[in-house]
């Protein structure tokens, strides 16, 4: 699989200075964690789930979570488990290209049970999403995953969801974060990424952000995300990939504030209709939130609607200017440090302080590609939509 792999090769050649790399479910964890992109959630009870997965793969989705937790009722869990076994068996028989597939479970006991019931089709499974993760609740999940992996002989990753009230409340936040850090560090080889449950954060205070607002505008939410990145997203080798929160909106009926998308990026490519469609479906808020996610150290995003996938991927592509700066900073002859003017002659690149940024940028360039000099996110988004 590869990002923008659903686009014709000649179109990719026009868009990219460096095309996104190909990867598989067996690729190194460091690469996969960066390549997750827009992780699309789907209830595990959908009767045509296998068809849905194949369809979304053809539209550019590279990671999906099949949910047995909050997206379905308590009374539907057994049905959801049975459906997953049927749908995975179906997919295994088709032999088609698939995204990275994860199952969101409710209890540790579900992990070995599902691995056993999936049988040979478990080879299609990349891992499990672990809800409401703290040290106390999370360790049994991680132990169950390790045991299931050993029993099945198939590599399985964990993606803990950080969403518990203890993480949100000021008086317990640091202690909870320290516990989470101990748990995920102990199982570092198994933890692919950490996911943020912002809807649960808001629920603790009876809040819900409007389509004109991002998670970063809700200060109590922004503060906990910042602390998660501070303790768990460091670039010193101890950190993990932390993914962005879900965007809940598909379409806006009435708008209080002005649209947040300027006209100018859309005029050059004659893409005014695309701008209007983005605004109509609340995508201007989503685009702003993605930009703020990345500025604050998050990579990838939880998505609950297919229309959110391409905006996440288009804004994850490395610009030619970013790539040029990162290359300059990482040149072997710059190992001693120093300051240099960027090739775009519009900024200072300071080698030692900017090195970690450059390394992360080059990893993102590997999985999402580098845009040509004259290509921006509007062209990438338009090409992705048209296929």
Automatic annotation (TrEMBL):
<dbReference type="GO" id="GO:0000287">
    <property type="term" value="F:magnesium ion binding"/>
</dbReference>
<keyword id="KW-0456">Lyase</keyword>
<dbReference type="Pfam" id="PF15617">
    <property type="entry name" value="C-C_Bond_Lyase"/>
</dbReference>
<dbReference type="InterPro" id="IPR039480">
    <property type="entry name" value="C-C_Bond_Lyase-like"/>
</dbReference>
<keyword id="KW-0460">Magnesium</keyword>
<dbReference type="GO" id="GO:0006107">
    <property type="term" value="P:oxaloacetate metabolic process"/>
</dbReference>
<keyword id="KW-0479">Metal-binding</keyword>
<dbReference type="GO" id="GO:0016829">
    <property type="term" value="F:lyase activity"/>
</dbReference>
<feature type="binding site">
    <location>
        <position position="200"/>
    </location>
    <ligand>
        <name>Mg(2+)</name>
    </ligand>
</feature>
<dbReference type="InterPro" id="IPR011206">
    <property type="entry name" value="Citrate_lyase_beta/mcl1/mcl2"/>
</dbReference>
<dbReference type="InterPro" id="IPR015813">
    <property type="entry name" value="Pyrv/PenolPyrv_kinase-like_dom"/>
</dbReference>
<protein>
    <submittedName>
        <fullName>ATP/GTP-binding protein</fullName>
    </submittedName>
</protein>
<dbReference type="InterPro" id="IPR040442">
    <property type="entry name" value="Pyrv_kinase-like_dom_sf"/>
</dbReference>
């Amino acid at each position: 699989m590869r990002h923008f792999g659903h686009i014709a090769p000649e179109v990719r050649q026009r868009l990219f200075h460096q095309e996104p790399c190909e990867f598989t479910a067996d690729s190194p964890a460091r690469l996969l964690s960066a390549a997750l992109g827009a992780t699309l959630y789907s209830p595990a009870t959908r009767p045509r789930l296998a068809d849905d997965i194949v369809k979304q793969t053809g539209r550019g989705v590279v990671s999906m979570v099949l949910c047995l937790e909050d997206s379905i009722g308590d009374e539907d869990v057994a049905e959801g488990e049975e459906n997953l076994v049927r749908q995975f068996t179906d997919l295994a028989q088709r032999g088609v290209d698939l995204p990275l597939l994860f199952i969101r479970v409710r209890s540790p006991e579900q992990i070995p049970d599902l691995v056993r019931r999936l049988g040979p089709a478990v080879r299609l499974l990349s891992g499990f999403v672990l809800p409401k993760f703290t040290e106390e609740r999370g360790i049994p999940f991680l132990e169950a995953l390790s045991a299931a992996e050993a029993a099945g002989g198939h590599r399985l990753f964990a993606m803990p969801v950080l969403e518990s009230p203890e993480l949100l409340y000021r008086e317990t936040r640091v202690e909870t974060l320290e516990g989470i850090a101990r748990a995920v560090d102990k199982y570092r080889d198994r933890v692919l990424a950490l996911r943020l449950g912002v809807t649960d954060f808001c629920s603790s205070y009876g809040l819900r952000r409007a389509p004109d607002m991002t998670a970063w505008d809700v200060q109590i939410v922004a503060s906990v995300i910042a602390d998660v990145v501070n303790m768990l997203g460091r670039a010193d080798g101890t950190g993990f990939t932390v993914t962005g929160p879900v965007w809940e909106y598909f379409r806006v009926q009435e708008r209080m504030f002005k649209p947040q998308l300027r006209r100018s990026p859309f005029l050059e490519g004659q893409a005014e209709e695309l701008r209007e469609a983005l605004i109509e479906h609340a995508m201007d808020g989503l685009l702003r939130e993605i930009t703020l996610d990345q500025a604050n150290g998050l990579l990838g995003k939880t998505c609950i609607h297919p229309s959110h996938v391409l905006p996440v991927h288009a804004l994850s592509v490395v610009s030619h200017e970013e790539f040029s700066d990162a290359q300059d900073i990482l040149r072997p002859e710059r190992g001693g440090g120093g300051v240099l003017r960027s090739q775009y002659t519009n900024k200072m690149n300071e080698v030692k302080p900017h090195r970690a940024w450059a390394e992360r940028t080059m990893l993102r360039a590997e999985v999402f590609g580098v845009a040509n000099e004259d290509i921006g996110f509007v062209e990438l988004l338009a090409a992705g939509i048209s296929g």
